[in-house]
Amino acid sequence: MAGRVQRVDQGKQTRQDSDRRPQAKARGLALALALALLGAPYAWAQAPQPAASGPAPEKDTLLWVMVHSPPTAILQGVGQGLGFVDKALLLFQAGLPELQHQVLDANYARAAVELRSKANVCVAAFLRLPEREAYVHYSEPYLTALPYQLVTLQRERPGRLRLALDAQGRVDLTELLQAVPSGHLPQEGWRVGVAGGRSLGQRYDQMIRNLPVGARLSVRHGNPSVSGLLRMLLDDKVDAIIAFPTELSFAARELGLPTQELRLLPLRGADAATTVHVGCSRSALGARAVEGINAVIRKQGPRLESFYREWLPSPSRANAPGPRP
Predict the structure, then answer these.
(1) Which pLDDT band, with edges at 50, 70 and 90, does 202 fall under?
(2) What angle do CA 290, 292, 296 make, to 5 degrees?
(3) Could you report the per-residue pLDDT of 59-76, keeping only the tens digit for each?
(4) Cα distance between residue 170 and residue 22, in whole Å
């Protein structure tokens, strides 16, 4: 009897469960319909969903000021993007993935203005000068360039005073541009062309400041400065220019001028070599950028130097400072 009762009870329970299923299903459908009308999907009533994440925070923007000065930076024309600072810039940007990067094509004077006035600016090739320390965070040096030189034509121009060289074959720029000695015509004096708004080094700046009154110095503004200066030399508008060997080699090739027709002379009192840094705004963002750039320089130093050496004229490579490739 007990077994039968058990069977009866199980049958009764089964019938009761069967009766409840349609009711539960009806209640579930009603709940789903109510949630849908309220704009909530039915699935949300079955299991909790992860909260939707908000938009990704915007990256800070770093503005890189670049000056078209082949082959330091080639921003247009033949060889665009192949300058040694162009290549260095790509490594620096890759080392700062947390920042968004923009590039501004400007001249040297504009680069200094941007650094002074904005908190998010870096200049990829900037010389370290005492007067700039107040507004620039400098990276470690990432390449050492050969010094600038006085450049003139191999052929002597008639009616010019002869160049006076010291025992080391150097030219004194002050003596070269001083007043013409008595007994000579004013037009016999030398005219020297330089790039405007640009520093080639601390000693260079001092030489230019100390030139005698009336010195025949032609200042050329605009980019690319060295190509324009070399054109002035060929057109007899100046008798000599001051330039770095890499820039001169590129400009001569661009103008179809064999470098053998040029005479390069060291300047007395010039900087022995030029170390190149990245200069960034003296701000929190600038300091953060320099920290990342320094990490790239320590890791990629020989590679950064090799970018520069690729552009040196063959005779100059043996004299170039820094590690050999």
Answers:
(1) confident
(2) 110
(3) 899 999 999 989 999 999
(4) 106
